[in-house]
Structures are given as C-alpha cells and as structure tokens.
Amino acid sequence: MARYIAFFSSINVGSNRLTMADLRYAFEREEFENVETVVASGNVLFDYDDRPSDGLEELLGHMMADRFDMDSFAAVRNAAEVRQAIEGNPFSATGEENQVHTHFLSQQPAPDRFDDLFAAYAGRGPERLAAGPRSLYVDYVNGVGASRLTGPFIERRLGCRGTARNMRSLRRILEKMED
C-alpha cells in the first residue's frame, strides 16, 4: 500500500458544501485505507494500492459526482511528489510560507501554455510565477485575496484544472505523510 494525499478543489465553496466526516466515509466505502482529513478542508490522506496518481484522480472525480453530485477536481500526489512541490518551488525559500503556493494541475500543460499564462498576466500584479511538473508555482506576495491571479484565469490559460496549497500547509501535510 502507498500513502497519498488528495487535494480537492471547490469543496466548501459556494454550493459544494461537504463535511469532512462525509468525505472520509465516502473514501472508506471505496475501500481506501487509513483515511484522514488534514490541515484544512479538502485535504485527505489515504492508503491505496501503488499506482499512478492520475488514475486515482479520475476515480475520486467519479466518486464525488456519484456520491455527492459534485464536480470537484482532486489532485492526488504521493509523498515524493509533495516533497517536490515544496523543494521545487523556486519561491519557497524567499517568499512568506502562507503566500507561496503550489497549484497542483490535472495534467502537464505544454510549455507554450505556460508562456501564454505568463504573458497574459504580465503587468497585472506583483505575483511571481514559475512552471513545474504538473504544477504552477506562485508567490502571491500581497496575498491570495488581493490577487487578480485567480484559479479560473489560470485554468483557462493552461487548459487544465488545478487546486492550490501554500507552503505552510504542504509542509504539515508532508510531515503527516512521512509519520
């Protein structure tokens, strides 16, 4: 069995209200093991047969639609991928840990999609951006709430879904994964 984290998007936002107890129960009904929610809503640790994480993302998407009638994306990563999301983020050493984020993406965008995003956002705000493996690294500098760099803007430019977590949360999650 391998240990994974599912980072859900759009849970407890708008009409997608869901308790973490109901989410844990749904995981357990699907025969995931050692299910635990962690840090904030929408983060679920679990054990499952070792397999590529993109297949698990599809499975969890179907689970959310079937059990809760929700269209929610889940980025699934193993401990090595979470560690890479922290260590590979070029802003993690210089930015504030609650402002530096990794956006976990549903697929790897082509390099020209990242170029399009960077060009479309140039001059719109102080954020720093960098491409990563199935991820986008962002230092929000003045805070996510004050930023014009939104999830929908990113998703339109990159052509895929995503969900973000800050360095503080990722470090706590990785610590729990490696316990």
Give structural notes:
The protein is an alpha+beta fold and 179 residues long. The chain has two domains: 2-78, SP0830-like domains (Alpha-Beta Plaits, 2-Layer Sandwich), CATH 3.30.70.1280; 81-177. Helix content is 36%, strand content 25%. The chain has helices at residues 20-29, 53-68, 79-87, 111-121, 151-158, 167-177, and strands at 2-8, 33-37, 43-48, 74-78, 100-105, 128-132, 135-139, 162-166. Strands 2-3-1-4 form a four-stranded antiparallel β-sheet. Strands 6-7-5-8 form a four-stranded antiparallel β-sheet.
In short:
It contains six helices and eight strands, in the order βαββαβαβαββαβα. It has 179 residues and is α+β, with helices and mostly antiparallel strands.
Q: Please summarize the sheet with the most strands.
A: 4 strands, antiparallel
Number of structural units classed as domains: 2
Helix fraction bin = 25-40%
Strand content: 15-25%
Average pLDDT over all residues: 92
Strand order of the biggest β-sheet = 2-3-1-4
Q: Give the end-to-end Cα distance, rounded to a whole number of Å.
A: 15 Å
Write down the secondary-structure element order. Answer: EHEEHEHEHEEHEH
Structural class: alpha+beta
Low-confidence spans: none
Instruction: Identify the overall geometry.
Output: globular
Radius of gyration: 16 Å
Number of helices: 6
β-strand number: 8
